[in-house]
Amino acid sequence: MDHTEVRRYWNGNADVWTKLARAGYDTYRDYLNTPAFFEMLPGVDGLLGLDIGCGEGHNTRQAMRQYASVLTLKMPKS
Questions:
Q1: Strand, coil or helix: what is 7?
Q2: Rounded Cα gap, residues 10 and 56, in angstroms
Q3: What is the pLDDT along the chain (78 residues), one digit of tens a residue?
Q4: Are 46 and 68 in contact (CB under 8 A)?
């Protein structure tokens, strides 16, 4: 499997994954990964971050709730 095939599979499943993740089915992200990620960061209040389009924007929204400013770069689907 090469990167082109991986991209095709990811893009083919992204909408369903996003719907399920936002409905609360990504428990590892919600209760383990995201809390651990933000625990490693310094306070983000007033900082500027860059979201380069990995996932559906969950961490970006979390950072913005903590008063960070975030620029997003949406990668084109191909």
A1: helix
A2: 12
A3: 899 999 999 889 989 999 999 999 999 999 999 999 999 988 889 999 888 876 788 988 999 999 889 887 776 766
A4: yes
Q: Which two tokens stand for residue 66?
A: 């903590």
Asked, for residue 18, whether it belongs to a domain, the answer is: yes
**Residue whose structure tokens are 């490693």:** 40
Q: Helix and strand tally (H, E) in the chain?
A: 4, 2
Residue 11 burial class via C-beta count within 10 angstroms: exposed 0-12, middle 13-18, buried 19 and up = exposed
- Provide the domain limits for residue 61: 3-72
- Phi first, then psi: what are they for 73, rounded to 5°? -125, 110
